[in-house]
Amino acid sequence: MSYTIQEVNGCTKKFIFNFEKVDLSKEIKAAVLAKQADSNLKGFRKGKAPLEMVQKMFGPQIENDALYRFISNEYFEAVKKENIRAIGYPQFGNTKYEADKTVAFEAIVEVIPEFEIKDVSKYTFKKESETVTDEDFETLKKNYLAPKAEVTEVKDAAHKLAKGDFAVFNFEGEKANGEKPDNMKASEYMLEIGSGQFIPGFEDGMIGLKKGEKKDIKVTFPADYHEAELKNAPVTFHVELLEIKTKNFPEFTDDLAKEFGFDSVADFNTKNKERMQSQKKREVQSKLQQAILEKIIEDNKFEVPQALIEDQKESVKADLQKTLKQQGFNDQMITLYFERWNDDVTSKAAFQVRSGLVLDKLGKKYNVEATESDLDAKIEEMVAQSGMKKEEISKFYKSNENIKRNLMYAIREEKTFDALIKQMKIS
Among 185, 216, 248, where does a domain finish? Predict the structure, then answer.
């Protein structure tokens, strides 16, 4: 064997090659033929110059090409022989070459890490309720009716501001040092209470106020707030409630249901309750899976290839960019956002990579595979959830190999979670 392998870290290996006697004639011949096909020498059509002339004209370059072919072939043969799951292209270095005699070089490459997962049978998790409440369903109905609702002033002076009401108010924020920045005050501002548009705690602090009342509301800005000077900052907002408004929704009739694409109110109720139930089940399951992954990753430390993290960062940024553009961010604002939150994006990408490696490891442990019948079942599920035609969904996922592969990967992860959860105590 003409090489040795060193462990740089848990996910990086160094191959050290040393050949005492090397014959590059085969590689040189291949390099000459490749150069001939690409050469355009005077007096000859492209690719038709004699091999001897090509070799004489491009001798040093051909020798370098041959050496590169030899190095690449030896490296890939070694990776194959050692059954190493290499990631990306290696970093070659310390190359030493003496014509017709010796070749030595090194190749550093990241690999899929080898790790073991500790016993999970003693893990316990609490699963949230999958029940869709009447309040949840009423909220959905109001969302449909919202464009047809009329916002009117509440005339009752005794009415207390409640969730769902609209508050018209003046406010001014005061920092701990007594400063009152202009960007923390407004007059006759209208806010739907419970919409979550303001700092956590602010809207809750307004609940119960009557028209004309004033109140000081103390809040603490979130640790991830977009303005650095306000992260974790305590601020007191001086608030004066000027007016309370409420939405008056029209009666939900069969005619309105038909405008929304349903046959009747009964059809609206049946289909949406089924969809909400399916959605709630997915949300609850997703939260449980996230909690399980966080626990496993916390208890099983292993190094992650930087190449995988960088690739995943691009996916994370692409998803974030779509969301930010929907929120009105322009390209310059998005660039600044990614510069400011690069560490958070990297952390999220690293977690996703670790999650993928853990689930792949567990999938192999439990002999989980995604089959064509699993794919058909998933498509049927999508049909029930979306109301789209089966033929459309089936064509979308089966006509493109990349899209199909991604869905099959997701199905395998779901089946892995099913197998994993059976090993734990879920209440």
Answer: 248
